[in-house]
Amino acid sequence: MPRSVLAQTGSAGIYTCVDASGRRITSDRPITQCLDREQHELTGSGTVKRVIPPSYTAEERARLEAERRREAEIQARIADERRRDKALLLRYPNKAVHDKERAEALAQIDAVALAVNRRVETLQDQRRDIDSEMEFYQKDPAQAPAWLRRKLEDNQQEMDTHRRFLQAQADEKARVGARFDDELARLRKLWQEFGVQQP
Q1: What span, in angstroms and rounded, lies between the C-alpha atoms of 194 and 188?
Q2: What's the pLDDT at 199?
Q3: What pTM value is reported for the model?
Q4: Which neighbouring-strand residues pair with 50?
Q5: Do the beta carbons of residue 88 and residue 187 sit within 8 Å?
Q6: Which of 150, 144, 120 is nearest to 132 (CA)?
Q7: Each residue's pLDDT tens digit, 111-120
Q8: Which pLDDT score is estimated for 5?
Q9: Judgement on whether residues 118 and 146 belong to the same structural domain of the protein
Q10: Phi-psi domain of 17 (left: phi exceeds 0; alpha: psi -120 through 50; beta: other)
Q11: Is the separation of the CB atoms in 184 and 95 below 8 Å?
């Protein structure tokens, strides 16, 4: 850089860039012809004080911001996955621990289903008794006493409710089993990655 330019600016900053046509421009303030490209601010002695990035249009800034957000989301997902993996390894240091928790979770669902099935059996016994009483009114069930018709209706409603509940329990058991399957597939990779020996 010519000493005359340095002498003229004294301790003030000097801005330099190469414009779109390849000309090097030097000025004592940011250069408008180089807003779309990198500029260097130099000290009075000619060393680079800072690099000024290009000034982007609103559309370009929006695009860059969207890219930064996407990158941040990707990094956040990666960090979240690492945290989940770490928590999974802490919770299940080996397959035996995972198998035990799976068995306990499924046993709880089975215990609830067993209790409901016992109630269903009781309802079925009640229904047989109700049906026996209704035999007297086979030709015209509307002639059955109101208390007997109500008893029949209540029995049917409770039976339907319990059957729906049992189906929900079966669905839950399948969901829990699938979750443990997914966890085990992930854990196998993690155990292998971290050299965890399985018994």
Answers
A1: 10
A2: 65
A3: 0.63
A4: 41
A5: yes
A6: 144
A7: 999 999 999 9
A8: 41
A9: yes
A10: beta
A11: yes
Q: Give kind and range of the element (H or E) at residue 188.
A: helix 146-193
CA 121 to chain centre: 42
Confidence of residue 9 (pLDDT cuts 50, 70, 90): very low
Q: Are residues 39 and 73 in the same domain?
A: no
Pair 160, 188 in one domain? yes
> Quick one: tokens of 71?
């990158």
Residues 6+ apart with CB under 8 A from 176: 102, 105, 106, 109
190 Cβ contact partners less than 8 Å away, ≥ 6 residues apart: 85, 88, 89, 196
In a domain, 145, yes or no: yes
What is the spatial distance between Cα 154 and Cα 176, in angstroms, rounded to a whole number? 33
In angstroms, the CA 114 to CA 4 distance is 96
* pLDDT confidence tier of residue 3, bands split at 50, 70 and 90: very low
Angle at 86 between CA 84 and CA 88, to 5 degrees: 65
